[in-house]
């Protein structure tokens, strides 16, 4: 007589309940908590968005005017010490312009009156003290849109590490409090995972400086970096 061979799928199906029971027995009681930590850091990097808008009868004319102005802006920023790697074209829009007129039959008709071109440059300024000066120079050379400013840090790891430590301390304190309230003893840590919830740079709309002002006033303030950790503790 040939030996009976149980198919693999059936064997796994039969084994699954016993494996699940064994796992539930070995896991034992546990507590899951979430902790949060925060650390602040003064930014050392400014992100600017500068745009040149030009209008003309044809798309080619509008593009040529916008390109000429942007070339002057880029050259001036490089002369001020902004590195090539910190200058990046982030957008180029060519848009027709129409006027809409009512018709006798209460409809509407459109008529092409020209074209509009917007050339946008993303700039990283590593010398925070010169942000206002950079904006003023760009505006004087033809930048007439954008002006968004966001402050961040080139290397926020030190602040994030402090936030992680604070988050672990927070989670551990919660776990200890809850276990004491429940009348059980807090055991070893079984699992830790963290999620960065860093506050993004807050954009600020910068305004061109008055003619008699030294430069546009810019205040970088501080950025808050928040970290959340999930921890699992064994209960004895």
Helices, by number, come to 4
| Average pLDDT level | 85
What string gives the helices and strands in order? HEEHEEHEHEEE
> Rg to the nearest angstrom?
31 Å
Oligomeric state of shown chains: single chain
Strand order of the largest sheet: 3-4-2-5-7
Strand content: 35-45%
Overall body shape: elongated
Structural class assignment: alpha+beta
For the terminal residues, how far apart are their CA atoms?
53 Å
* Helical content band: 25-40%
Largest sheet, described in full?
A: 5 strands, antiparallel
Strand count: 8
Which runs of at least 5 residues are low in confidence (pLDDT < 50)?
8-14, 205-212
Present the secondary structure layout.
Elements: H1 8-27, E1 30-41, E2 45-56, H2 59-79, E3 87-102, E4 108-125, H3 131-140, E5 145-152, H4 157-182, E6 186-196, E7 204-205, E8 223-235
Antiparallel strand pairs: 1-8, 2-4, 2-5, 3-4, 5-7, 6-8
Q: How would you briefly describe this protein structure?
A:
33% of the residues lie in helices and 39% in strands.
